């Protein structure tokens, strides 16, 4: 099934516009980043396959080579995913307002942000 075969109200971009990013599943958010699927599957199915193969929590630890091993994922999609992961890390670091760790409080502030996100993904 192609993305255009899905009713407009169930497509990720339209859902994001109507309901906000928080209402979307992990696969829908990833689908928006990837933009297109492969010849064999639409972008939502491809996103679900990535998440079921690797898992959301391990996506940040993947290499370009590991991502490319998934059928339907090439250099471009792998690069998009890794760029998203890196940007997310940088946003997290920027939120802590730490440019350099100089004391224990800097470590605490940095880890507190990371652990909150980690705890939420593990508990729910």
UniProtKB/TrEMBL annotation:
Coiled coil: none
Transmembrane segments: none
Domain UPF0758: start-end pairs: 4-77
Protein's name in the database: UPF0758 domain-containing protein
Organism whose genome encodes this protein: Candidatus Iainarchaeum sp
């Amino acid at each position: 099934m192609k993305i255009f075969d899905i009713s407009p109200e169930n497509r990720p971009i339209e859902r994001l516009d109507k309901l906000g990013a928080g209402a979307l599943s992990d696969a829908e958010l990833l689908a928006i980043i990837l933009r297109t699927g492969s010849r064999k599957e639409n972008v939502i199915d491809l996103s679900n396959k990535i998440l079921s193969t690797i898992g959301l929590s391990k996506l940040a630890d993947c290499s370009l080579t590991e991502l490319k091993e998934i059928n339907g994922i090439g250099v471009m999609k792998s690069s998009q995913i890794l760029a998203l992961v890196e940007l997310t890390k940088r946003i997290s670091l920027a939120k802590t307002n730490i440019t350099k760790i100089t004391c224990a409080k800097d470590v605490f502030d940095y880890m507190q942000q990371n652990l909150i996100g980690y705890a939420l993904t593990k508990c729910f």
